[in-house]
Amino acid sequence: MLRVILFILLIIPVSIQAQRTIKWNGLHLNAIDKQGRKQGEWLFFDKKGNAVMQCSFNNDMVSGPRVFFNNGDTILVRLERKNDREPFIYYYKNQQINGVFAHKGDDFNIELDHIPAGFTAADIRELKRWYAVKIEPVYMFGVERLADYFSAAYYKSNAIPNWHHNFVLTINASGKVTNVEWEEKDELWTANLEREVFDMFYSMGRWQPFFDTWQTQEIKITMSLGADLKAITAR
Fold first, then answer.
1. Cα angle at 57 between 135 and 68, to 5 degrees?
2. 159 pLDDT above the threshold of 80
3. Rounded to whole angstroms, how far apart are CA atoms 181 and 192?
4. Which residue has the higher pLDDT, 226 or 36?
């Protein structure tokens, strides 16, 4: 299934490729337009670089199905919600199960077209987990290493000393760093250093935005950054 989806991605219109994209395995994915809105086909990855979800965006809103992958195989296809009912296809031990997430307020029930042999309460819990899946922010969608970016940024810097600081980055729903906060500044902090730090963070490549259940959301992550680059941590 993943191979089929990636073949479809090969025929993305040139107008989408001409926008700002992420290059992955020769494909141009995860485009944003000049207004910073998500457009076209997107792939989301875990921190190991494995594809975990594919969907389409139209002016920042999810359009069409969301396809979730588990170890390279399709595990769940969630179709567009109509009123309070969201159809889905769940793949259970090589069996296809059709069902509906029936919403009522903040709660939902699961309706299945049939109960396959061996399907237990634990399997229902696993299906619920896939429904509420959260995909964490990953720098440059995992196609570039965070340490490599900061190594280059430090090399070009004129003012950043050998210090250790914690920063809080705000990453918007399209993966851009929009705000930077830091802990109490020490005696080494200067106006030149502040300009260097701002430039370093705001010049970063896009992050994979945080995806929670249905849409991408703005999120704050904490980053501990040391000049030896061994202390780069996020979230």
1. 40
2. no
3. 17
4. 36
Last residue of a domain, one of 79, 104, 135: 135
Domain that holds residue 184: 138-234
What are the pLDDT digits (tens) for 38-86?
999 999 999 888 999 999 999 999 988 999 999 889 999 999 888 889 9
**174-202 tens-digit pLDDT:** 999 999 988 767 667 788 888 888 888 88
CA dist 204 to 25, 53, 152, 172, 176, Å? 21, 24, 11, 13, 8
Question: Are 129 and 170 contained in the same domain?
Answer: no
- For 125, the 3-state DSSP assignment is helix
Closest CA to 65 of 82, 47, 84: 82
Residue pair 199/186 in contact (Cβ under 8 Å)? The answer is: no
- Going by C-beta distance under 8 Å and a sequence separation of 6 or more, which residues neighbour residue 234? 137, 139, 146, 169, 221, 222, 223
Contact criterion met (CB below 8 Å) for 225 and 150: yes
Alpha carbons 219 and 215: distance in angstroms, whole number: 12
Q: CA geometry: angle at 45 spanning 25 and 132, to 5°?
A: 150
